[in-house]
Design a protein that fits this description.
This protein is α+β, with helices and mostly antiparallel strands and 761 residues long. The chain is built from 29 helices and 20 strands.
Length: 761
């Protein structure tokens, strides 16, 4: 029993399941709707996987989101069971769910329960809204186009009211104003509308804005000394306040001590810096100077002798604030400035506490007009009426859900409860991303990877040769895939190799290997691996020695050239004495080499004393002795090769050892071969110099092996009536044994006669 079974399912008679064996374990095969109805009875220990991510797999993400009821980005076994149970309860014949199709017959919807009855009514309503009233089936395109479904309906159950749904022009205008001020929500019809939250937010802002203005209207003489023009005056005042305060502060400091006057007016050197380059009256260097020339107790000129960078701002201040408050003036004293600051300070304080800024664009008159109307009550009532239809509207959404489950559930089950798609190879598994073509092979087991480093840490346990490829497309699209190589060899698989990756949509990507996890690919490769390593080692050593010799040669040539150039300066070299230690060391070395060669020659001479066919078998045994460990290790790893760690590293919870044996692995990687019926060409362009030596040597060895074998068993001697060849070894051995026995018998007889004669005497 599954751990998810409830009391009712535990009382049901046990369902008979059908299994198939693949990947080293038994997997359920879905044959009928009864399998789906009883899915909760299937022991979860027999499921191929217990969870998978909703992203990074080749499956409709909207269907996965419908199954993912807790919205955690993962699909788990209980969610699969719940989705299957719901779908089975919505159709009359659960067998329909195994016949994947992007449509549902109306006659097949189960109207025997309230939810199914409502779903059938909703399906018919959708078709009626789309002008397909007489249709007998509803497709996914019909159910998923919500904009068309709800285009002609005033209410659709989502609690959002578009402006068009208003009963009169005044209400429509208010809804439009709400959207303009606080934004909109998208209605199921696809139109912008307002929810109750937006309505409440708007009217709260409108009320706050009106109350804020009411404070100013209550104390207009203080807060609005210039009426409607106070805002402009306050703006001009705020723009220059800091600079005017700075000017009068400098004048007070000059009155305190005349010695500071030069410094307060800035140094001459600073002016030289400014005039040394192209000038602009708005330049930061000029704007930083005082508003006017600093003198003790001097009033601020309003028209002449002003800093050019501030002349415009002071003129605006004079026109909007000083003249309306103080009259026409050519200068402004510090006391008058204090008076202006006091009269506009109350406005600044009030403006700082502004409320309801979101509706300010409508203007105070329009805001109060809306507040005075019954627009809020009207819109709230419309939202309530719309919300009341939520069950019916949600049922319309359930129609799309049923169609999606009818189309996708089987595919999900045969890639989750079992891995039938993967092992049957009739359709690509949902966890594969496409096919990689590289190094004369096409690899089908390509898994998308988010982080190659993290993936490789776990995927290495799969005992599979993996190549991580970065794939790019024009326009900047990027992806990384882990590719399993299960056929051919790994001689030329290395970081930097380029190929082409075709995704499930048929799009081609440039692919570059960035990392490989080495594991055996085949027994044949393992047989030749030690010799290939030996050849590579020899090549590397030869290359190193050649490079060292070339460097030494260059050094000698350079030294000779230097010696020739300095021949007349060089002193005669003293004769070098022979180092006795060196001679002894050389003797020991030559002795060791001689001993080794003697052992090798002795071993070979022992082998060469055997018949030639046995010599061949001895060398074959030697090859197996060298390659045997590599082949055994490869055989063990190939038996352990499995898919589980590769998927686990991608966020799956694989429930068993999903093995990939050698025959199945070979099917996942196709090695380049000529197509059927193709005629190979024996004419080679730019051929190597022809030589028959390898074939000749192989033929001679094969003939000698055969002749030696036949001669050993006396076949040649028998066929030629003793004219050629030797007798069979067993015949010679038997004759020798008989001869030895005869000699022994003769000797025994002679001894017996001698003994008899001795007794007679």
């Amino acid at each position: 029993m599954s751990t998810t079974s409830n009391d009712s399912s535990s009382r049901r008679p046990a369902h008979k399941w059908n299994f198939f064996r693949a990947g080293g374990f038994e997997q359920v095969h879905f044959e009928s709707g009864a399998d789906l109805v009883n899915l909760d009875q299937l022991d979860q220990k027999l499921w191929a996987a217990l969870s998978c991510p909703t992203r990074g797999i080749e499956f409709d993400t909207k269907t996965l989101d419908l199954i993912d009821t807790d919205k955690d980005g993962r699909i788990r076994a209980p969610e699969i069971i719940a989705a299957v149970k719901w779908a089975c309860s919505m159709v009359k014949n659960p067998d329909d769910l195994l016949r994947s199709a992007a449509s549902v017959d109306l006659s097949g919807i189960n109207d025997g329960n309230p939810e199914g009855k409502q779903l059938l009514a909703s399906a018919k309503q959708i078709l009626a809204n789309l002008g397909k009233k007489d249709a007998t089936a509803i497709t996914l395109d019909d159910a998923s186009d919500t904009a068309k479904i709800f285009a002609q309906t005033q209410f659709n159950g989502d609690g959002i009211i578009p402006a068009e749904s208003g009963p009169d022009d005044a209400t429509k205008a208010v809804i439009t104003d709400i959207i303009a001020c606080v934004g909109s929500d998208v209605d199921r019809s696809g139109k912008p509308g307002v929810s109750q939250a937006k309505v409440d937010q708007f009217f709260a802002e409108a009320g706050a804005f009106s109350d804020w203005w009411k404070k100013a209207e209550t104390d207009a003489a203080t807060i609005l000394p210039l009426g409607d023009k106070t805002a402009a005056a306050a703006g001009a005042f705020k723009a220059v306040k800091a600079k005017v305060d700075d000017y009068f502060s400098r004048c007070r400091l000059a009155a305190f001590d005349q010695r500071a006057l030069a410094a307060l007016n800035r140094q001459e050197s600073e002016y030289l810096t400014v005039v040394a380059k192209d000038m602009s009256i708005t330049a930061a260097e000029v704007a930083g100077f005082p508003l006017a020339r600093i003198e003790a107790g001097r009033a601020l000129p309003l028209k002449d002798s002003l800093n050019p960078a501030w002349a415009g701002a002071i003129a605006t201040l004079n026109a909007t604030a000083i003249q309306p408050l103080l009259g026409d003036k050519s200068t402004l004293t510090e006391a008058e400035w204090t008076t202006v600051s006091g009269k506009l300070g109350a406005y600044e304080c009030w403006a700082t506490g502004k409320a309801g800024a979101a509706v300010e664009k409508l203007g105070l008159k329009r805001v109060r007009e809306i507040l005075a109307s019954k627009a809020k009550e009207t819109i709230t009532d419309l939202i309530a009426k719309d919300k009341a239809l939520e069950p019916e509207a949600n049922s319309i959404v359930s129609v799309e859900k049923l169609i999606r489950f009818r189309r996708d559930l089987k595919q999900l089950l045969v890639n989750f409860v079992s891995f039938e798609d993967f092992y049957s190879r009739q359709r690509k598994a949902i966890f594969t991303a496409g096919t990689l073509y590289l190094d004369g092979r096409s690899c089908e087991l390509c898994v998308p990877v988010a982080d190659a480093g993290k993936h490789a840490a776990l995927a290495g346990l799969a005992k599979t040769y993996l190549a991580y490829c970065d794939c790019t497309r024009p326009g900047g699209a990027k992806m990384t895939v882990a590719v399993a190589y299960t056929g051919g060899d790994s001689d030329f698989l290395m970081a930097g190799r380029n190929g082409i990756f075709y995704d499930r949509k048929g799009q081609d990507w440039d692919a570059t290997i960035t990392k490989v996890i080495e594991n055996p690919i085949s027994i044949r490769q393992a047989f030749w691996a030690p010799y290939k390593k030996l050849v590579r080692l020899i090549e590397e050593q030869v290359a190193k020695r050649a490079a060292a010799a070339e460097a030494a040669s260059d050094a000698k040539v350079g030294a000779a050239a230097t010696a020739a150039a300095n021949a007349d300066k060089a002193k005669p070299a003293e004769a070098k004495k022979v180092d006795v230690g060196t001679v002894a060391a050389l003797g020991v070395a030559f002795g060791a080499v001689g001993t080794m060669l003697t052992a090798i020659v002795g071993y070979l001479s022992g082998i060469l004393q055997l018949p030639f066919w046995q010599v061949c078998l001895a060398f074959a045994g030697l090859l197996l002795l060298v390659s045997g460990p590599s082949m055994i290790i490869a055989w063990l790893k190939l038996r352990q090769r499995n898919l589980g760690p590769i998927l686990d590293a991608n966020g799956w919870a694989v429930n068993g050892r999903v093995k990939m044996n050698v025959p199945f692995g070979g099917a996942l990687t196709d090695v380049a071969t000529l197509p059927p019926g193709a005629q190979p060409s024996f004419a080679v362009r730019y051929p190597e110099p022809p030589t028959a030596m390898p074939k000749f040597i192989f033929t001679i060895i094969a003939v000698c092996f055969l002749v030696s074998l036949l001669n050993h068993f006396g076949v040649i001697n028998s066929l030629t009536d003793g004219k050629f060849g030797s007798e069979a070894a067993w015949v010679v051995k038997k004759r020798e044994e008989e001869k030895k026995k005869l000699e022994a018998d003769t000797k025994a007889a002679a001894t017996s006669v001698t003994d008899t004669n001795a007794l007679a005497k």
